Give the backbone structure.
Amino acid sequence: MNDTTAKTDTAPTPQELAVREKKELPGEEKTIPGRFFVPSTDVYETEDGLTLVMEMPGAARDGLDISLEEGVLRVEGRLDFSKYQGLGPVYTEYNVGHYARSFSLSDKVDQDNIGAKLEDGVLTLTLPKAPAARPRRIAVS
Amino acid sequence: MARLPSPFDTVQGLQQALDSFRTSSWLDASPSGGGAYPPINVFRKGEDFALIAELPGVKKSDIEVQVKGRTVRITGGKAVDYPAGSAVHRRERLVGRFDRAISLPFEIDAERVQAESRDGVLALLLTRAEHDKPRTITVS
């Protein structure tokens, strides 16, 4: 939390992208058709707050469901499978499904000012820190 | 009672196919491209084929698609940026460059390729070249 590493240290080094199999959501079972996968997520913290960046390719804005209940942030991204209607698979390498993941938040988050942005299949959630939790500089007189 | 085809059936069929096709050798690896990223799914749509790849976080302007003969090549790069002075608690997203060439079992009409990228999913609609289409021979 007090880590103030410079950007050069935190920025990942570019390389050849490798294929990674999607992880299915463990635990709870769903009763709607389609599988649920765990979206790859980056979490980073700045002085102002916490940012969650989740990869949910195929999920459109109206398929997103973000809720915060009793300190648990739950994100669900549902896919519209109707796009696949009339398509016959001939060769497949990856599985297609919905996305879901939850995070328990500390109560230092300003729960009324959470921001969400979806771009190119990536959901960015900004969770500002509650004013009381922000670092304060105390001037010595 | 007769059941109407529903999107649920589409999902079921898709999932079953996805599970059973994993080991298919329908496409052979092509020597002209680098790695196996992005993973792709190929669907038949009537006479045409749809090639779909998931590229979350890759901007449209960073994707390049080339088509020649039977080969489709998808190249590009993806960058992830953390603001200066941030502490990274979790890093699961992958970054880097990709270059993949796929050889399809038919000639592609390069003039009629439709490419669309939406919500991090790249979809290419490929039409078989006219001269490559099979001809029906009437038996006399």
Observations:
- Chain A touches chain B through 56 residues (CB under 8 Å).
